[in-house]
Amino acid sequence: MRRGPQREEPYRINERITAPRVRVIGENIKVDVYPIQQAISLAREQGLDLVEISPNADPPVCKVVDYQKFKYEQKKKQKEIKAKTVKVVIKEIRFGPNTEEHDFNFKVKHAENFLKEGSKVKATVTFFGRSIVYKERGEILLLKFAQALEEFGKVEAMPKLEGKRMSMLLMPKAAKK
């Protein structure tokens, strides 16, 4: 019966540690530099493993712990770090160069809600056919949009034309504490 490839462990433990001398830390252990065999026997006496946690130190630092518990705690720390990262959401609002006042106000209200939620807002004016000759209308529309939302967000990227689209990015203002 053949198994898949063995996964490489992220930490070296016990006999896999290659350094001749290591600094040993852990509970009920005198922190000191020991020869590798003595360090492994210290860990075994307590029914634990010797785990190399800092291989680039001189001498490498090893900890006397239960390896399975150590791996579990490391995984838990990684999950916490991942959960704390901020996910940036960008909501897009589209206009035509000849957007009427009512539609404009309707879209401003939506953008206001998006900014209050903490999302960034990308406002885009799309020019169809020959309406590209009115690109200044699109720029005026975007600047008016930014002005209408200035108490909720600030302009991160000024209006710029890319092909037949002109876009601008607004980011929410920091929440008042």
UniProtKB/TrEMBL annotation:
Q: Which family does it belong to?
A: Belongs to the IF-3 family.
**Summary of subunit composition and partner proteins:** Monomer.
Name the gene that codes for it.
infC
Instruction: Give start and end of each Translation initiation factor 3 C-terminal domain.
Output: 88-173
GO molecular-function annotation terms? translation initiation factor activity
Question: Which UniProt keywords are given for this protein, alphabetically ordered?
Answer: Cytoplasm, Initiation factor, Protein biosynthesis
Q: Does the keyword Membrane apply?
A: no
Biological role: IF-3 binds to the 30S ribosomal subunit and shifts the equilibrium between 70S ribosomes and their 50S and 30S subunits in favor of the free subunits, thus enhancing the availability of 30S subunits on which protein synthesis initiation begins.
Q: Where in the cell is it found?
A: Cytoplasm
| Family matches, as Gene3D superfamilies | Translation initiation factor 3 (IF-3), C-terminal domain (3.30.110.10), Translation initiation factor 3 (IF-3), N-terminal domain (3.10.20.80)
Q: Which Pfam families does the UniProt record give? A: IF3_C, IF3_N
This chain belongs to which protein, by name?
Answer: Translation initiation factor IF-3
Can you tell which superkingdom this protein's organism belongs to? Bacteria
Ranges where the Translation initiation factor 3 N-terminal domain occurs: 13-80
Coarse class of the protein's main subcellular location: cytoplasm
What SUPFAM superfamilies does UniProt report for this protein, alphabetically? Answer: Translation initiation factor IF3, C-terminal domain, Translation initiation factor IF3, N-terminal domain
